[in-house]
Amino acid sequence: MSRIQFVLAGLAAIWLAAFAGPAPAAARDYPWCAQGGEYGYPGECAYSSYEQCQASVSGRLLFCDRNPRFAYGHAPAQPRPQRRVRPVAPY
Length: 91
What we know:
Elements: H1 3-19, E1 32-36, E2 39-47, H2 50-57, E3 63-66, H3 68-71
Antiparallel strand pairs: 1-2, 1-3
């Protein structure tokens, strides 16, 4: 294999690894949102507890409030795990 072919094969492998990697995680809303400042409504909803939100907004001129999707019962449905079905052996 010539040197150029080796370099091209390496570049192709790098390109495939960059674009064939795992898909990004789906966005998920959490019950608490950081609001104010640069965040629009409902804010940055990335906190599972009020304490986490308070720690994040400390010193940033922001405040914490409930995520309206959770507060009013419009939380997105979480996908249910698929059940594994074991095949039954014939008698």
